[in-house]
Amino acid sequence: MQWQDAYKRWKNFSGLDETLQTQLENIEDETDLEDRFYKHLEFGTGGMRGIIGPGTNRMNIYTVRKAAEGLARYIEEQGEAAKQRGVVIAYDSRHQSKTFALESAKTIGQHGIQTYVFESLRTTPELSFAVRYLHACSGIVITASHNPAPYNGFKVYGEDGAQFASEDAEVIVDKVNSVENELEISVAGQQALLDEGLLTMIGEKVDKAYLEKVASLSLQPEMIHDMANELRIVYTPLHGTGNRPVQEGLAKIGLKQVEVVKEQEQPDPDFSTVKQPNPEEDAAFELAIQYGEKNQADILLATDPDTDRVGVAVRNKTGTYELLNGNQIGALLVHYLINEKEKRNELADNAVVLKTIVTSELGSEIARAHGLTSIDTLTGFKYISEKIKEFETTGAYEFLIGYEESYGYLIGDFVRDKDAVQTCLLIAEAAAHHKKNGMSLKDVLDRLYDTYGFYQEGLESLTLEGRAGVETIAAIMDDFRTNPPTRLAEKDVLVSEDYASSKRKFIWEDREETIELPTSNVLKYKLNDGAWFCIRPSGTEPKIKFYFGVKEATKEGSSHTLHNLKQAVMAKVKA
Fold first, then answer.
1. Active-site residue among 97, 104, 138, 145?
2. What gap in Å lies between CA 396 and CA 375, rounded to an integer?
3. Less CB within 10 Å around the terminal CB: N or C of the chain?
4. pTM check: above 0.90
5. Distance between CA 558 and CA 565 in Å, rounded?
6. What is the structure's pLDDT at 46?
7. Among this protein's residues, is 385 annotated catalytic?
């Protein structure tokens, strides 16, 4: 497709939305126009995400309709029962989220498919729960997760509440891509769908059922009763969907000393108090830290706009707050769950910890020390959810926890995506437990390092926008594949793993084996002394990410090794 042809098709379309038409008419920069029209906004196996605005490569009512149309065609092929079970739709606090949710419902409803739309904004994990609770055949959530304010997205879920498995997802992608003209998709009227019973608004009943399930994860209600007024928590929803469910969840299990950052409590699509609503970033905690210092809070919690990720900061011995990374939070949760379930004889012998290939090995070490299994999946929570579903069928393992380094965790499998609401409750309960025993979460983490070795991880990413960026990312991946490193930072590269070809090569032994995971455009290299790095283009952002992990006896040793490894890898990237 020539971008000029797509641009003219939009410009000359008589029925174009007035707002989009005005925006298009005001664009004079040809480079900007090319970026908007040189391709269709990519619909991947989990959905799509992009900047809001006019163009085939932007989020707008037409690209949303195209995505919804592809899903509707897929559901039609599943038969009348699937159409009656329908699709649940949720949306977050971003610009045009409600509009995009209703456009999705009107597009799907045009096919005679039942839809359930939340009456107001809800979290991604509650959407996952609702699909299961209502026995729907699919779900949609309109969100761009932790991306900046100009973005929005469309995520699609299967009947188990997880993002679609690879085979089904590829069929849906083909259906979306087969839609020839997004401007001419027919949609039903909202009132007509309501009158016909094909559109149902939902809310309070699902909320109650979800929160009851979340509260049931509490392991120590008696301890929480004792610590209800002792553990001090500061929470910020970062202008997103988490405010109500997190506050209600913490109250439901009995924690009473919770203060919310007022400046960030209400939904705000501009995220006006933060540069980016990302709990992975120190800057997202600036206001929470001020509240914490004023109230001597033990822990600070921050959730992203759709409340599937959570960041945690803890007060250390100097009285200042230290932001934990995603790997550390995961290790603390694994440690707490295993130890407390063991005390109560509730830990199954076949309990399993699931994590991704770019997540720290510390959680796996803790699991193995207790005689449990830890299994790696590809990056992306849908692969963890696929394993949960597999174990339900085979009975090989009982799910304990699944997590990834990017601040996503799941403890209760009544949800099939990462869930920051239940994570807030469990990490708060763990903090209360350790405080009762005279320790902070930081003290516990330090003890884990003393026991298992000092694991340290790092992440570097390059943001490469537009067509040139796509080509640069492809060139980087090609260079590492065709010219793989054999020695970096004074360490031998022992193993290379190419998840696109499913080949694991033992470099110094001249042998290889098959990787038993789905294919993905990811490379991983394992060095001696437990160090590793992984390269992965983002599926939702114009980025290529470089993950690093090391293990040494001390923090200083780990920091030194990590610095040298990062420097060596990035030097090869920029060469």
1. 145
2. 12
3. C
4. yes
5. 10
6. 85
7. no
